[in-house]
Amino acid sequence: xxxxxxxxxxxxxxxxxxxxxxxxxxxxxxxxxxxxxxxxxxxxxxxxxxxxxxxxxxxxxxxxxxxxxxxxxxxxxxxxxxxxxxxxxxxxxxxxxxxxxxxxxxxxxxxxxxxxxxxxxxxxxxxxxxxxxxxxxxxxxxxxxxxxxxxxxxxxxxxxxxxxxxxxxxxxxxxxxxxxxxxxxxxxxxxxxxxxxxxxxxxxxxxxxxxxxxxxxxxxxxxxxxxxxxxxxxxxxxxxxxxxxxxxxxxxxxxxxxxxxxxxxxxxxxxxxxxxxxxxxxxxxxxxxxxxxxxxxxxxxxxxxxxxxxxxxxxxxxxxx
Amino acid sequence: xxxxxxxxxxxxxxxxxxxxxxxxxxxxxxxxxxxxxxxxxxxxxxxxxxxxxxxxxxxxxxxxxxxxxxxxxxxxxxxxxxxxxxxxxxxxxxxxxxxxxxxxxxxxxxxxxxxxxxxxxxxxxxxxxxxxxxxxxxxxxxxxxxxxxxxxxxxxxxxxxxxxxxxxxxxxxxxxxxxxxxxxxxxxxxxxxxxxxxxxxxxxxxxxxxxxxxxxxxxxxxxxxxxxxxxxxxxxxxxxxxxxxxxxxxxxxxxxxxxxxxxxxxxxxxxxxxxxxxxxxxxxxxxxxxxxxxxxxxxxxxxxxxxxxxxxxxxxxxxxxxxxxxxxxx
Lengths: 321, 330
Ligand SMILES: Cc1ncc(C[n+]2csc(CCOP(=O)(O)OP(=O)(O)O)c2C)c(N)n1
Ligand SMILES: [Mg+2]
Fold this sequence. Notes:
- Chain A is globular and about 50 Å long.
- In chain A, helix 1 packs across helix 2 and helix 2 packs across helix 9.
- Chain A is an alpha/beta fold.
- Chain A has twelve helices and eight strands.
- Helix content of chain A is 47%, strand content 11%.
- Chain B contains twelve helices and 14 strands.
- In chain B, the strands form three sheets. A seven-stranded mixed β-sheet of chain B has the order 3-2-4-5-7-6-12, sandwiched between helices. A five-stranded mixed β-sheet of chain B has the order 9-11-10-13-14, sandwiched between helices.
- Chain B folds into two domains: 3-186, Rossmann fold (3-Layer(aba) Sandwich); 198-327, Rossmann fold, CATH 3.40.50.
- By secondary structure, chain B is α/β, with parallel strands linked by helices.
- The chains are: A alpha/beta, B alpha/beta.
- Bound molecules: thiamine diphosphate and magnesium ion.
């Protein structure tokens, strides 16, 4: 394994930050405190945080889709800045102009989320092209959902990336649903990774609830891409334990199904793994959890204190000078 | 001034060549833009000169072309993307409208998208309804985009150079029927035409005519005809259609008290309507002596048969009639 105990702790800690952040948002939306909508990643932390962590470690670039909070937090974003954005405050990561679907954090190589399903794929090609063109030695991690692989953009972009041997890893979080639509109504194949064959690139399906596996595979895929071999397609199997967006009553699936998947919850799984392998003790993990919880509390309090954006800022940054 | 005669096509190529020489971040992408030189041969020779690293031929994937351009622009390059025909930008609209035009704003100015999308536009080639449109009005409704439409070789070069240097996504409308038109083009290193500055093509006192593209060339013909009758027309070419520099138009209308707007693209929902509205809601409304006249393309798809296609866009006769109307002389 390529992770030190220190890094493993950090991974666990960020997964918990993400979990508490998302649960806090769920509660805030439930109580109608927040304006707008959100797509929470509860249950998908191993996939999102694990993949992001792999990109972060090598200084790679990331581009995300609408359900991008786990990755953003996995990359190390300041929670106060993210919470401020949720509250539409001036101290938010985009000064209140982006919101939940447009988190961005350039400091950590995160070029942000797009709210248009499939929209990130060609952007990722362009970002990867820049790395190739400038010979930066960096790669791009592009995250999408299972529903997005039926967009023309997916096909166009994987094909282009293959033909141009772009250093980009397409990481699909297959949570079995595209909003309410189950996978089997979205496509007639079992493994999304099989599509890699159409583009002449490698593809693999992995356990997206096993954060160590996610990390390892994404790291290898990024290295492969960076070495000039071209793009890589990864399908990470996972499950969204929460609703699709703020107002989803989840009438399209059974409570039993959700309960079954909760048994596969990536966070306790990782905790067990760490303890079993003597990589952490229960007390350590508890302290990390408390810290993550505290972080979110602090972020929430700070966000509420932030001023709203200046009215005039509605006009700024439409154009660059 | 050092001037050289060349075609509109050559002027565009020269602009790209000079900007590629000047700035290593500039690169080109599009379908068949290499050896073949693009469908309209605008990029012919640039592959030889700059190599495959900077002149990239793509699969037929318009969304990937525009999105890749945007992604590379977000990370510091200056792509110039060609759509084989302007009509095919329909397949790249998500990348252009939802991504290129929005990322700066959504990120509160943290990223910028310096890219150019070149769109060979317009009718007159018998290519039919899917290969002949001028879609400029669509983009003039998308804050975050800039839209340029050069009408002469000198304008083509000067504007394209500015567009490539601009830090925003610029939609660059080129007219297929103008590619072979010739004119004198400045050769100075620092020659550019700034964006968002309207240009007075001809001074006059009786009436203001705003026009661009092939319609402008017809307008000039009409205006020359009318000059022989003693009618003095002021012609204004916006050059950048969005955001448009309206002040010269306002000033001109205040002076002449009459306004005609002429363009090739469909009249309904066209850019001319916006110009008319701006004038009408400005105090220069009070200076108008007659209703504003808009002349645009027919509100139909573009047909192929020559006699039908010719009717699509206004010619000098139609434009002269419009000017007479605005002058109360019909
Ligand atoms: C182009 C486009 N079509 C539809 C939507 C509405 N929408 C938002 S998320 C979503 C489901 C996407 O499913 P998937 O890609 O599996 O991601 P998940 O939500 O499961 O994370 C849909 C249909 C959209 N945002 N963009
Ligand atoms: Mg899904």
